[in-house]
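hey m, so remember when u said the tokens were messed up on ur end? i reran from scratch. heres the input so u can diff it against urs
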Amino acid sequence: IMLHGSPWHLYAADYRIMTVESMAGMVRQQGSKIREVVLLSSWSGAVPDKHHAPLAQQLSKALGSMKVSGADGFLWFEQDGKTAITQQAFSMFVTGPYAVKKGEKVMASLVAGWPAQFEETYARQGNADGLLRAGVGHEAFSLCPSRALAAFDASAALGNPIAAYNAAILRLERGAGGDREAALALLRKAVAAGDEPFAGEVTGGDL
């Protein structure tokens, strides 16, 4: 399964955080023919912090101990489809959209990550979609959930329902004072905008 991610989250094609439970449900829909899952997602096999197991391990547990493997660093793709992993503590990128020369390796996290550098520009423009992508970039490339939350909050304030959902997830996971109430308000805003995917999982029916 190929998707953007970080040590903390997997992201769907629309940049929505995909919970482990949602991913497990998608795998189960394929039936008994699936016996092993390989997560082609950066950091999906790495321990995010002392409180959480790697995403691959969490998915394995959700699938009844099915074998699940994931990358323990930044995932790169070669022209022939082969992959490589790097674990640098700090990465720098020259400004502008990400591009590579023909035949060069592609850093998966930077494909999602380059918009993070334009967060201030998107904010000045009132570009909600840009701020959503900047938030994903802060987490997927910069490995900074706190900056991701700030960008998601800014995007949600401009009416982006996926950003509101992502911000709600991060607040519920953080669990600081007032986070649950703020998360429920964000989810209500997302639903009011016509966006309901996975809301029941997160709120437990509180909407």
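this time it looks ok to me. Residues 6 and 140 are 5 Å apart (CA to CA). if urs says something different then somethings off w ur setup not the seq
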